[in-house]
Amino acid sequence: MVALYKTPVVEYLMNAANSSSGNQLTAAFHVTNTSLAIFLLVTICVACILLTLLSVYGILSLLRRPHIGKRPRNRLESIYMEEILQIQADHGRYGTLKYTMEYDPQGCQLKIFIIQAENLRSANQMHAVDAYVTVALIRRSGVKHVKIGNVYKSQVKRKVVLARWNMECQYPVSQQELKECVLILEVLDHDSIGQDRRIGVLHVDLGNTDLAVPVECTSRLIEGPPQYTGVGELCVGLAYNRLKERINVYVYEARKLLISPFAIKGEDPLIYVSVELLVGGKCVDKANTKESTELINPYFNNRLGFLLRQKDLKRASLKFCVRCTAHGQSKHTIGHICVGSDTVLSFGREHWEEMLNCTPRVLVNLEDGPIGVGQTIRIPDPSSSVKP
Question: PANTHER family given for it (predicted)?
Answer without folding.
Answer: SYNAPTOTAGMIN, SYNAPTOTAGMIN 1
